[in-house]
Amino acid sequence: MKKVVAIGGGEISKFETFKIDEEIVKLTDKAKPKALFVPTASGEPEAYCDNFDFVYGKMLGCETDILFLIKDDPDSSQIEKKISWADLIYVGGGNTKRMMEIWRSKGVDKMLIDAYQRGTVLSGLSAGAICWFKYGFSDSQRFENQENWHYTKVEGLGLFDAILCPHLNEENRRELFEKFMIDFEGVGIGLENGCAIEIVDDTFKIINSFENAHAYVFRRSENKLFVDEIRHRDYIPFNLLI
Hints:
Keywords: Hydrolase, Protease, Serine protease
Structural class: alpha/beta
Number of domains: 1
Strand content: 25-35%
Helix content: 25-40%
CATH class: Alpha Beta
CATH architecture: 3-Layer(aba) Sandwich
Number of helices: 7
Order of helices and strands: EHEHEHEHHEHEEEHEEEEEE
Shape: globular
CATH superfamily: Class I glutamine amidotransferase (GATase) domain
């Protein structure tokens, strides 16, 4: 089975996504799954890696490892060995555009698609949620120039034909995403912090870590934008969404 969990946002260190993290581990169907953290988007800070190890290792009982692509500069065989080892892969948040550039330069994008086909549980938050979709509504420019930046469309791995907007309830992101969607040819999915979309084979459902975390679908028709909350807590066909 092919399994992806994309999380809209939240601090893993504050257990804001813990109910979702539990579901990610459960999807492996393993008593002690092997969990691989990929912190490329954030530049691989030690504290983020420690937080993942604490939550997924000590709290959720996984055997954990980290895929360092910047600090270690591994070759393709070393990368493939770690990705093949994992029962679940969790991609951290940060600069989506930079992350995708690094992945493509090292062939990580293709390795992750292969892992998806093998049934490895793929998951992540923010940039780590965007990456599984065809596109993401990204704040990557903010990392390069905090004074003068705007949201951009960033290309992901394309497992799902939609554009994903994480952190939908932060700042004025929803307003700007709605303006973007008026001119976008396709379907948009917006996830608030603490909310995730779980996609298993050709079905999906919404999971959240607290009650007031929501998901929405954005569709354009005849130059009008229609926005609907996605309320499904049981699996339904994914093609009903896109």
